[in-house]
Write a structure and sequence with these properties.
Bound molecules: pyridoxal-5'-phosphate
Shape: globular
Largest sheet: 7 strands, mixed
Distance between the termini: 21 Å
CATH topology of the largest domain: Aspartate Aminotransferase, domain 2
Pfam family, one: Aminotran_3
CATH architecture of the largest domain: 3-Layer(aba) Sandwich
Family: Belongs to the class-III pyridoxal-phosphate-dependent aminotransferase family.
GO molecular function, one term: pyridoxal phosphate binding
Low-confidence stretches: 1-7
CATH class of the largest domain: Alpha Beta
Radius of gyration: 22 Å
Strand order of the largest sheet: 4-10-9-8-7-5-6
Number of helices: 13
Order of helices and strands: EEEHHHEHEHHEHEHEEEHHHEEHEEEH
CATH superfamily of the largest domain: Type I PLP-dependent aspartate aminotransferase-like (Major domain)
Strand content: 15-25%
InterPro entries: Aminotrans_3, Aminotrans_3_PPA_site, PyrdxlP-dep_Trfase, PyrdxlP-dep_Trfase_major, PyrdxlP-dep_Trfase_small
Keywords: Aminotransferase, Pyridoxal phosphate, Transferase
């Protein structure tokens, strides 16, 4: 645990040739240079320590420096450096079986390098599947507004956030979007459950109105993460599964963020009943960020159509480094640790006993809603609870900066109004200690009290 500290001069003083991701290139803003990590914490060049409250980019699930993972990687590299997955190697074979088992059996796994690639792979499989099973007109892919599915052009076309897309349009043809389950700002009246079910009804209406014979797939995260942590009622997910079944639409579940315990189940869709997606895509927590790896797990029913002998129906798709032996060995060790240390149950329990305390922040006028499932939390920030006007950008920046000064990194996203990111994101490593979680909750509370202490509407003790 660390004391509150003053941030010493953060580095990158010399001209840098590094093009930072998602960075506004403001010469006044110096990016910190991280040099060392331990558990959920990292240190910068000036010796400042930070708790990583967003697990890097929601991926550092087991934290820094797990010796067992490092050794598994080195051992694999020493044994077999590389073969492409046009052939086989043991780590890929074992990992594919393990993932199929975790998903409930009977899935075939295709490996790539990232979440974007895992989704691109899923889109191509869904389209080819329909082409070779008598439905060649099925090509459209539907996703929800506010969702994020990756940065490559297909995955970006499924991504329905204007601010991420507008400079790169036109999108790939054949992608369309529907209204998400977002009860807090819903266009529908009624309870959250009613509002979410109406959003599910829009999925069915869209399929019918587009022509069911043209729709290949529906892609969804169980909980929209990159678009402001939108958590639907479980009936929404169950209803969408039912709709996809009825219209022969491949249900692609994007578990890139929610997979491997983040939400208190091994996979996010497992919170719902009787949901068994046709395709499940994974990355991030698959290796806990130790090496890049993406996976696209496909139900046997679909895989069968790629198999017959003598036909040109194989999947013409390859990625040089997809399923790299070292990455697969790392993933296997990562999953072994998750199971051995009961990480999923731990997330479930600590989310209730510790992170749940963030709910109390709704006492501030500027906190419109706290949405949480497991170690995935979004605080929707508003100017005013009644109008729900998104909190001004400079105030959002102020929250993040104040947390950073106290040694806590948190994030923000949302795109509530295109380009306006008014949702605070908190997603600590799944192995965060109880002290880490207490530090996180206390620091955020402290910052809110410091910035908004005079704007309190309810008498909830902090
Ligand atoms: N899907 C979801 C839900 C994501 O949040 C992300 C990345 O944040 C991706 C896909 C893309 O993953 P990657 O950055 O590994 O390409």
């Amino acid at each position: 645990m660390k004391e509150e500290m003053e941030i010493r001069s953060v580095t990158e003083e010399k001209p840098s040739h590094l093009w930072h991701a998602m960075h506004r290139h403001d010469p006044q803003v110096k990016q910190l240079v991280a040099v060392k990590g331990e558990g959920g914490w990292f240190t910068d060049e000036a010796g400042n320590c930070y708790l990583d409250g967003v697990s890097g980019l929601w991926c550092l699930n087991l934290g820094h420096g797990r010796q067992e993972i490092i050794e598994a990687c080195a051992a694999q590299m020493g044994k077999l450096t590389y073969v492409p997955l046009t052939m086989s190697h043991q780590p890929a074979l074992q990992l594919a079986t393990k993932l199929s088992d975790l998903l409930g059996g009977n899935y075939q796994c295709f490996f790539s390098n990232s979440g974007s690639e895992a989704n691109e792979t899923a889109f191509k499989i869904a389209r080819q599947y329909h082409k070779q099973t008598g439905n060649p007109e099925k090509y459209k892919i539907i996703s929800r507004y506010r969702s994020y599915h990756g940065n490559t052009l297909g995955a970006l076309s499924a991504t329905a956030q204007a601010n991420r897309r507008v400079k790169y349009d036109p999108a790939v043809p054949g992608f369309l979007h529907v209204y998400p389950p977002y009860a807090y700002r819903s266009i529908f009246n009624g309870t959250k459950e009613e509002s979410d079910l109406k959003a599910a009804q829009l999925v069915e209406d869209t399929i019918r109105w587009e022509g069911e014979e043209t729709v290949a797939a529906f892609i969804m995260e169980p909980f929209i993460s990159g678009g402001g942590v939108l958590i639907p009622s479980m009936e929404y997910i169950e209803r969408v599964q039912d709709i996809c079944n009825r219209y022969n639409v491949v249900l692609i579940m994007d578990e890139v963020v929610s997979g491997f315990g983040r939400t208190g189940e091994m996979f996010g869709f497992m919170h719902a009943n009787a949901v068994q997606p046709d395709i499940v895509t994974m990355a991030k927590g698959l290796t806990s960020g130790y090496l890049p790896l993406g996976a696209t797990a496909v139900k046997d029913k679909i895989y069968q159509s790629f198999k017959s002998v003598g036909k040109d129906n194989h999947f013409r798709h390859v990625s040089t480094y997809g399923g790299h032996p070292a990455a697969c060995a790392v993933a296997l060790k990562n999953i072994e640790i998750i199971e051995r240390e009961n990480v999923v149950q731990r997330v479930h329990d600590l989310a209730k006993s510790h992170l749940n305390a963030l709910q109390r922040l709704t006492k501030y006028d500027h906190v419109g809603e706290v949405r949480q499932i497991g170690f995935l939390v979004g605080l929707e920030m508003v100017e005013d609870k009644a109008t729900k006007e998104p909190l001004a950008d400079e105030k959002m920046v102020g929250i993040l900066q104040n947390c950073k000064q106290r040694g806590l990194i948190i994030g923000r996203n949302g795109d509530t109004v295109p380009g306006q990111n008014n949702v605070i994101i908190i997603a600590p490593p799944l192995t965060s200690t109880e002290e880490d979680l207490m530090f996180l909750v206390e620091t955020v509370t402290d910052v809110f009290n410091h910035l908004f202490g005079s704007n309190i509407s309810e008498s909830i003790p902090l």
